[in-house]
Design goal:
Length: about 220
């Protein structure tokens, strides 16, 4: 044992920058949730982007959409989390492994709670749609991996926040496209899911660091 503290999952150089991003994302989630509470059809913004149908794409793009969608299903998501946790442990980043599990649970849990509170549906009353849980999960996973990369490579400031936001954008765009293409969600559902991850993951990372560092603070 070296006695060195474990690296923070939310580096100090990123906390001040990600805080406003998380707050703005939370505001967007709330505003969209209020606007679409109880809705059973696409809104004007959704129709402007694409008319939601159950069969928006044809092969080979449909196969690609289904493959991406699988990564947000329970089996696919569990596989991704286990692989990522194993990678964190191999890199000796147990705190990041905790964030992966806690972050995924908090993000999906928040999205699920919001679905029942908002009550927006697509293709039938039983299909709650806002926000997109698939998009929230996949974006959250990308955020955690990006935070791990910023810490491992010592990125901070502009470089660090750029990497984190770029990872979130790519992951959210990929999963969001798949969800809209397959008719599982409206575009605004996808935006809500993306913002859910942007709001939840930084807060969860801060909490993981606070809990992990508590014993060291008490010894001072």
């Amino acid at each position: 044992m070296t006695g060195r503290p474990a690296p923070a999952v939310l580096p100090l150089s990123l906390r001040a920058r990600l805080g406003p991003v998380a707050a703005l994302a939370a505001l967007v989630v709330c505003v969209l949730g209020v606007l679409y509470t109880g809705h059973r059809e696409a809104g004007g913004v959704d129709r402007w982007i694409v008319e939601p149908t159950a069969d928006s794409v044809r092969p080979p793009w449909r196969r690609l959409a289904l493959a991406i969608d699988f990564l947000g299903e329970p089996a696919g998501a569990a596989t991704l989390i286990m692989a990522a946790v194993a990678g964190c442990l191999l890199l000796r980043r147990p705190r990041a492994a905790v964030l992966l599990v806690a972050g995924a649970a908090m993000t999906v849990g928040t999205a699920t709670l919001l679905k029942h509170l908002v009550g927006r549906t697509i293709h039938g009353d039983g299909n709650l749609s806002y926000p997109s849980g698939h998009t929230a999960f996949f974006t959250g996973l990308a955020l955690v991996v990006a935070l791990l990369a910023t810490g491992r490579f010592g990125l901070g400031g502009t470089a660090g926040i750029s990497l984190v936001l770029a990872a979130a954008l790519v992951a959210g765009a990929a999963m969001g496209w798949a969800q809209v293409a397959l008719g599982a969600h409206y575009p605004t559902d996808v935006l809500g899911g993306w913002c859910t991850a942007l709001a939840v993951i930084p807060a969860t990372a801060w909490l993981v660091d606070r809990v992990a560092d508590a014993p060291r603070r008490e010894r001072r």
